[in-house]
Amino acid sequence: MTKEQQKLLVPLDDYLKVGIHIGTKFRTKFMMPFIYKVRPDGLAVLNVQEIDNRIKIAANFLSQFEPNDIAMVCRRENGWKALELFSKITGIRSYGGRYTPGVLTNSNLKTFTEVKLVLVVDPWPDKNMVFDAAKLGIPVIALCDTNNDARHVDLVIPCNNKGKKSLGLLFWILAREYLKSKGTVNETELTHYLEEFISD
Questions:
Q1: From CA 51, how far away is CA 159, in angstroms rounded?
Q2: Residues 6+ apart with CB under 8 A from 33
Q3: By the 8 A CB rule, do 20 and 144 touch?
Q4: Closest CA to 74 of 99, 93, 92
Q5: Coil, helix or strand at residue 55
Q6: Which residues span the domain enclosing 90?
Q7: Distance (Å, rounded) from C-alpha 160 to C-alpha 80?
Q8: 84-133: per-residue pLDDT in tens?
Q9: How many CB atoms lie within 10 A of CB 42?
Q10: Structure-model confidence comparison of residues 188 and 59, the more confident one
């Protein structure tokens, strides 16, 4: 094992098993810096070291905010379970399914909410929250696959944002790192959650 691999948040095999690095056949200019290679079948492969590095940056950024200052959204059903578990463990509010435009911007709505940071699972289906946050100058963290447009995104986490297991592992790591940074748990107290996050 190389020194670089030893510094990863989880063993390299854990990342590879869930396919967190497998992108799509489409590649946008925003995502080119994160692409390691293109396979013979046309699928782009993301750089695992860069994925890990961006998760670390995102976890550090998230840890600077209290749970009620953060909102997360996931329109894609494959991410609902992981998002719900993440929300339950950290206390960070989440919107699984459709996020209604105006929740962040329209104070007349009953569901109106003020936050200081948002995280979206995919900036395309979750564009309503991205646009609301952009209007207010709220930083946006987004999980982005090789086909994503990252305009209005302040921090890109390159990853397979469509696979259930990929999203499960990513949210488990973020939950663990967030709680560790807040001093809520130590590393051993959260390990049993991994299977819950990635199970079908």
A1: 6
A2: none
A3: no
A4: 99
A5: helix
A6: 3-198
A7: 15
A8: 999 999 999 999 998 888 999 999 999 999 999 999 999 999 999 999 99
A9: 10
A10: 59
The CA distance from 12 to 86, in Å, is 22
Query: Residue 10 and residue 108: Cα distance in Å, rounded?
Result: 44
With tokens 């049993």, the residue in question is 192
CATH number, residue 16: 3.40.50.10490
Indicate the length of the chain as a whole number: 200
User: Hey, what amino acid is at 82?
Assistant: A
Q: How far apart are the first and last CA of the chain?
A: 30
Q: How many domains, in total, are found in the chain?
A: 1
Residues 167, 82: contact at Cβ < 8 Å?
yes
Q: Provide the 3-class DSSP secondary structure of residue 89.
A: helix
β-pairing, 140-144 vs 117-120, is parallel
Of 118, 124, 165, 167, the C-alpha closest to 28 is 124
d(CA 147, CA 145): 5
Question: In sequence order, which residues have a C-beta less than 8 Å from that of residue 166 and are 6 or more positions away?
Answer: 18, 19, 20, 22, 159, 160
How far apart are the C-alpha atoms of 63 and 21, rounded to whole Å? Answer: 25
